[in-house]
Design a protein that fits this description.
By secondary structure, the chain is α+β, with helices and mostly antiparallel strands. It contains 4 helices and 8 strands; from the N terminus they run ββααβββαβαββ. It has a 5-stranded antiparallel β-sheet with strand order 1-2-3-4-5, sandwiched between helices. Strands 6-8-7 form a 3-stranded antiparallel β-sheet. The longest helix has 16 residues. The chain is globular and about 35 Å long.
């Protein structure tokens, strides 16, 4: 995968050397997006950077998913990851967009779209998104994803909905 540019960022494949940077960005974007769902993100384990460093290190080393990062002069501002869908008994789509996060200051810059295009393109996929995240729902709707009626929860997020295309 070569490098692609968004409005302000270069999109490239993630490497094992990116694990700590992705983990920091992952925790920061979770605070921005889901911090409102918990009493204290500073003490909630879902917002802990160290936990995410080990997760990202092992996932990148094991190639659990295909991941891309968005880099600006100031550093990493976003990432996305796709993996084979592991739902039982049968996957609704062969791939799942398991993560796509862009720091809040870069929302609207085209970085999220560039990450999605780089990691998934137009392929069919599923994803889970917080029910109470209208910005994400709008983004995914523009990219052909629709809710299929499945609901769940994840960590501090009370209700998530599955989107498919």
């Amino acid at each position: 995968m070569g490098e692609r540019g968004s409005a302000t960022a270069v999109i490239r494949a993630a490497t094992i050397d990116d694990a700590a940077s992705i983990a920091r960005l992952h925790a920061a974007s979770w605070r921005e997006t889901y911090g409102r769902f918990v009493d204290d993100p500073d003490t909630n384990p879902w917002f802990d950077v160290d936990r995410r460093v080990s997760m990202w290190s092992s996932n990148l080393e094991d190639q659990t998913f295909t991941a891309v990062v968005a880099i600006e002069e100031v550093g990493m501002i976003g990432f996305a990851a796709v993996q084979a869908t592991a739902e039982e008994p049968a996957a609704v789509r062969p791939e799942e967009l398991s993560m796509l996060y862009v720091l809040e200051h870069a929302h609207g810059s085209g970085t999220g779209q560039a990450l999605l295009d780089a990691v998934l393109g137009e392929r069919p996929a599923s994803l889970w998104v917080a029910a109470d995240n209208p910005r994400a729902h709008s983004f995914y709707r523009r990219n052909g994803f629709i809710a299929d009626g499945a609901i769940s929860s994840f960590g501090p997020i009370g209700t998530t909905v599955r989107l498919v295309r």
